Amino acid sequence: MNQRYRFLSGVVLLLLSSWPSIRATAQQWQDTLHEVQVSGLRRKDTLDDARRRFASSQTLQKIDPVYLDLYAAQSLSNLLAQQSPVFIKSYGVNSMATLSLRGASAAQSAVLWNGVPILNPALGVADLSLLRTGLFRDVSLQYGSSAALFGSGNVGGALLLDNAPAGFYPRKDLELRAGAGSFGRLEGSLNAAWQGKRLKAGINTFWQQADNDIAYTDAQGREQRLSNARLKGAGTLLTLDYNPRKEWSTVHNDRLYLRVWWQRYHRQIPPALFEQLSVKEQEDISLRTLLGWEKNTRRSTFYAKASYNREFLHYQDSMVLLDNEHRVQQYYQELGWRVRLDNPDREPKRGKARSEHSLLLFAPLQYAVADGENISGSESQFRPVLAAAYHFAGYSRKLEFNAALRQEWVNGAAAPVLPGAGMRYRIWQLQFAGARGGIDLRLTANIQRTYRIPTLNELYYFPGGNPDLKPEQGWSQDGGYAAAFSYGAFSLKHELEGFNRHIKDWIYWLGGAIWTPHNIAGVHSRGMETRNKLEYKAGQVKVHLGLNYVYVLSTTTDSYLPGDGSIGKQIPYTPRYNIQCNVGFQWKGALFFNYNHTYTGYRFVTVDESQYLEPYTTGNLQAGYTLYPSGGYRCTLAAQLQNVFNTAYEVVGARPMPGRNFLLQLSLGLRR
Questions:
Q1: Model confidence at 506, in pLDDT bands (50, 70, 90)?
Q2: Which residue did the predictor score with more confidence, 21 or 514?
Q3: Contacts of 303 (CB under 8 A, 6+ apart)
Q4: Where are the beta strands (DSSP E) in 222-321?
């Protein structure tokens, strides 16, 4: 304990000694907390942002910069579990955490980094516990299938992670951050960037360690401390942007960019509740690179990107003399062209509203190779793609319509064609006199064909892989409305959506000593979501209240297994209810306080619902205070108290989660 506080004190003194040369880089506390976008996306500097307008009829939840800053030293799994209504399936301390959207499995939820899929091609999932929030400028959730746009595996939705694009104007940023918390947690990070008229270079590096000796109650009711639970991790993200032109224009520009992201984690795997002890250890090393080029004109964008990703996993269990290495390599490239079919410079005819027609043609290619002790030899997948998308906005943007079509080939065999279409229509817009507010009401509807090919592990894992697996495929539909009301200091946003999805040949692992994936003949997922946000501003104080609620029924409708008891039963580890609430205030853009409360319903452990885990609730407090919030210099002290009521709970069976714990962060920075 003393070592931790000596470390923090030393870092604080170091930062304070350099105070005259330090200004702020992290985002300022925002005056608004817009979590759900109701209006169309405006064009940004990157094509990946512009691509989202081709799915404008689908809900996009953008995590507010306030929370990105508060959770910068934590994993995305913690951020999303507390600040979104999605289900994060956490396997406990130092173990995997995966994402589930609208009752989809983890393998049916896409994760994209600057438009590049970073799901492990062998596992088919991304471990969110190894993705640090502070590495990303934007974190967004897109709900609903967009397989035609984002490819195989995008069944329930997508997690979109982006880094900041260059604006090419003179600027210098520096931020130093240190933190300490419960269970021996220590960490530090450096985020620096230099930007000129032709070049931008940046580095974001971090280090962390923790003992993670949490208290829990064992099967005999005795208080215990978790053993074999140490964690060490470090990583660096390097960015480079280059402007080939002498002058930078937001309309006509060229951009070359490079991203290199390396990280390494060493995790001890603690014992499950049914184990006496554990000596398991796991090392995760990943290298992700991205090289891209964009050429933007008034009406079109040409782009090319190439990415090479390599992941290495080393798992050891000396108790059973197990020593496995698993290596995965993935190459991804994409060529594309986005064009405005109408002429934005031509004035519309008198009495006619301007209509916008946009077309996107793109050709991704993905090649993945996996090898290791649990793969018989070296197995690979080669997946070229041809795809097109169309977007229409007209009638003073009252109506937006988008459609997409995708054709993939998997190792030379054509996959089913993936069509999709959606619309958003504003049925009522009213502006109050005196510009004191207004009302906006819109309807949305979507239909998409879904498809997911089996992963390399599902096909070739030894022992247990099933090379006879069929791809998952089906159709999904969703629709609802979004309403926004504001008057004076008061504003309210409300969204309600229903969704329906039928999947044939859903893949699920079954077994005892040896687990094997099987195709469940049919799964029907349906439910509803509502997102609500209330704000009131009184002088220098802004109060906010948010409530998100999700209800999901995801049940087996057909089975290939004789006497299967899963018919009509909920898919394991798919909670029917998820509730997330935030209430708090901001003062002068400097002081921020928020209380977060979550509820997660029953999770059935078996396919016949014979075993289940109890629902749980957690309360979490976040607070931060910033000196000079609008100036160039900045000093921020942030604190979090997690699991305020010390709830004993398990997200996954026999894997206890941390009780009450705290985290303190101090950051100092400059911006010139």
A1: very high
A2: 514
A3: 47, 292, 293, 294, 295, 334, 335, 336, 337, 338
A4: 223-225, 231-242, 253-269, 280-296, 300-317
Alpha-carbon 96 to chain mean position: 15
Q: Which of 475, 474, 472, 476 is nearest to 453 (CA)?
A: 472
- DSSP three-state, residue 69: helix
The string of DSSP letters for 140-157 reads: EEEES--HHHH-TT-SSE
Contact between residue 78 and residue 598 where contact means Cβ atoms under 8 Å apart: no
Q: What pLDDT was estimated at residue 49?
A: 60
CA 541/CA 575 separation, integer angstroms = 37
Q: Are strands 157-162 and 109-113 parallel, antiparallel or unpaired?
A: parallel
Query: Collapsing DSSP states into helix, strand and coil, what is residue 445?
Result: strand
How far, rounded to the nearest angstrom, does the alpha carbon of residue 128 sit from its chain's CA centroid? 8
pLDDT for 48:
59
CA nearest to 361, candidates 334, 399, 400, 394: 334
- For residues 657 and 648, give the distance between their C-alpha atoms in angstroms, rounded to a whole number: 7
Measured at the CA of 480, the angle between CA 474 and CA 483, to 5 degrees, comes to 155
Tokens at residue 651, please? 């997200």
503, 472 Cβ separation under 8 angstroms? yes
Res 245 pLDDT > 90: no
Chain Cα centroid distance, residue 418: 24
Instruction: Report d(CA 238, CA 225) in Å as an integer.
Output: 39
DSSP 603-636: EESSTTSSSEE--EEEEEEEEEEEESTTSSEEEE
Beta bridge partners of 482: 442, 495
Closest by CA position to 426, among listed 34, 40, 60: 40
pLDDT band with cut points at 50, 70 and 90 for residue 350 = low
Q: Which residues contact 162 (CB under 8 A, 6 or more apart)?
A: 46, 48, 49, 113, 114, 136, 137, 138, 140
Rounded to an integer, what distance in angstroms lies between the CA atom of residue 594 and that of residue 587?
A: 12
Give the list of residues 6+ apart from residue 550 with CB closer than 8 angstroms, or none: 85, 86, 102, 527, 528, 529, 577, 578, 579
23-27, 57-61, 328-332, 388-392: lowest mean pLDDT where?
Answer: 23-27
Give the residue carrying structure tokens 């979004």: 482
Give phi and psi for 462, each to the nearest 5.
-125, 125
Report phi then psi at 471, rounded to 5.
-65, 150
> Which three-class secondary structure state does DSSP give residue 238?
strand
Q: What is the pTM of this model?
A: 0.90
> What's the pLDDT tens digit per position in 251-290?
778 999 999 999 999 999 999 998 989 999 999 999 999 9
77 neighbors 88 (Cβ within 8 angstroms):
yes
* pLDDT confidence band for 33 (50 / 70 / 90): very low
Smallest CA-to-CA distance from 670 within 136, 203, 172, 194 is with: 172
- Phi and psi at residue 141, to the nearest 5°: -120, 125
2-275+291-671 CATH choice from 2.40.170.20, 2.30.30.370, 3.30.70.1140, 3.90.25.10: 2.40.170.20
- Tell me the per-residue pLDDT of 570-618, one tens digit each, with 9 for 90 and over: 999 999 999 999 999 999 888 999 999 999 999 999 989 999 999 999 9
For residue 615, cis peptide bond before it (omega within 30 degrees of 0): no
Residue in 65, 128, 122 with CA at minimum distance from that of residue 96 = 128
